[in-house]
Amino acid sequence: MAGPGSFLAQPLRRPSGTRIAAHLGLLLLGALTALAGALLQAGWFPGGLLLALAGAAGLFLGGARALGSRAGAVAPAAGWMIAVVLLTAGRPEGDFLFAAGGGSYLFLLGGMALAVICATIGWGRQPVGDGVRLGK
What we know:
Oligomer: single chain
Largest sheet: none
Mean pLDDT: 80
């Protein structure tokens, strides 16, 4: 897979079509999770907020684990954040999805914090196998 030397010194290669499709699918799942979470946290406040944030964290970490890289957590987090920003914008008619309450702000800030945390500590590129440890 990687040649001799540092991983950072390796040339960049174009990702495969299935990897691009997986990232786009995770982006769409992140947007759908944001929409479902926005409706859930408003409808059933304390439990719905926790369930919506747990679902978002599960999607972020699951994407990282499924793709084996941190980009797997960034793709659904980006979809989640884009959807939330679009859902917070009010329409000229006065319609809105997020009320100006504590639950909405906790959902927005908590979801963004979870996205950053999951993308930071997500499944990074770690070598696996018997030859990884020095003593073996």
